[in-house]
Write a structure and sequence with these properties.
Structural class: mainly alpha
Oligomer: single chain
Strand content: under 5%
Shape: elongated
Largest sheet: none
Helix content: over 70%
């Protein structure tokens, strides 16, 4: 393995992290923006109003997105192990 292989593994790893965590982060972002918009419109500044819905959406999202996360991580590990066995990409 050389520097090019290391770069390929790192880039695949970063993309895997983005694909795995991206949907959950996107859900939290959308809920956070919706709650902030609601608070700005109604001038209700309750701190628990921001945390409870985000936590609920993240928990439901984790249950829904876990199979996708598994597939993405499995694909990365298969590619890396194949690179190790063959000695390159």
């Amino acid at each position: 393995m050389n520097e090019s292989d290391t770069y390929d593994i790192l880039s695949m790893t970063f993309l895997t992290v983005l694909y795995g965590a991206g949907p959950i982060m996107l859900m939290a972002l959308v809920v956070g923006l919706a709650i902030a918009f609601f608070q700005a419109l109604t001038q209700v500044q309750e701190m628990t109003l921001t945390f409870v819905p985000k936590i609920a959406v993240i928990m439901v999202g984790l249950v829904v997105v876990t199979p996708l996360m598994y597939l993405v991580l499995k694909r990365l590990s298969d590619q890396v192990f194949d690179m190790l066995v063959t000695g390159g990409p």
